[in-house]
User: What shape does this take?
Amino acid sequence: MLRIGLTGGIGAGKSTVARRLVELGATLVDADVVAREVVEPGSEGLAQVVAEFGSEVLDADGALDRPALGSIVFGDPAALTRLNGILHPLIGRRTMELVERAPEDGVLVQDIPLLVEGTMAPLFALVIVVNAAEDERVRRLVGDRGMSESEARARIGAQATDDARRAAADVWLDNSGSPDQARDEVDRLWRDRLLPFEENVRLGRPGSSRPPRLVEPDASWPVQYERLAARIGHAVGDAALRVDHIGSTAIPGLPAKDVLDIQLTVKELSAVDVALPALRGVGFIDRPGVDRDNPKPADPDPEHWRKRFLTSADPARPVNLHVRAEGSPGARYALLFRDWLRADRRARDEYLTVKRRAAERHAGDSDASRYVEEKEPWFDEALPKAEQWAQNEAWRNPTDGLL
Assistant: This one.
């Protein structure tokens, strides 16, 4: 199952996108529907709310009078906390019941209006944010919901900012245009990304294998890393000592393959076995055949260079996840080379020359393995320079003394 988070500001058209995804075959769990369901007449939730706030929160038919309840809690933080203490566990329990009923070989979309505000993005393998220009959202709210313009703008202003939503978005779906344009965009997303992603996760396949091709630096690489790091950290839990952006995309200004390399440092590699189902749940596939770094001359014992290697199953965002144990030379060198290349322009330029030559020689390869192998001699020769830089700068290995 591929779990997708869907969100967007009021008036952006999130419900329209959700309906189309269901038409295409997704299973939908709507947070607003669940929130209403747990306080339906006769429910445990409604009984608890009445016991806490009194019968004045019921209408003449015995259903929840939402305006009456709102008048009690929204001006009283303590009362709102008590209400949330009743509702949130019930909503969470019901949501998980619905999630567990979803087909294992399908795409599950969870429509959560406050996904960004609730910092829930790391729970999902992919987050779709539906957006529209503010003036268009105001026009819809005034025309479709009968709000005044000032009320519409106030409601928009009370929600997460566009910047916050962009930071959480793996997919930014602009719904400012016509319904047909939005439908076509959703259809392309379903066909080209969501269905292949789900199949890759289910079958344990990496999402992308591309010939080595260098692209210009992308200013969004660090933001993409932050999103992925949050997912990885949440999936691994306390076993994750730290998560770092490594490799060429972590070096500002350096052309690179459009593949994010991430290092997860754990106390012991066996911790990954426990976390594999959760990592698969956020889109990462174990690659057991790639379990060692190339030993460096200073330490030829291959056992010192053991690691676990995972890749993303997302066809649109290649990611390599290198899992290394605390104190291992591989974990240290990944961070040393990154920091040295960030600091030393001459070394960075020299490395870029090597990268470009290797990319040209292996441009026709179906994957990047020979491209990577061709760069290894440069790393071996550059290691003493990196170590000298570390000594001169009093560089400290960030993975030292984590516990």
About this structure: The chain has 14 helices and twelve strands. The chain has a mean pLDDT of 92. The CA atoms of residues 74 and 398 lie 45 Å apart. The chain has two domains: 2-203, 214-392.
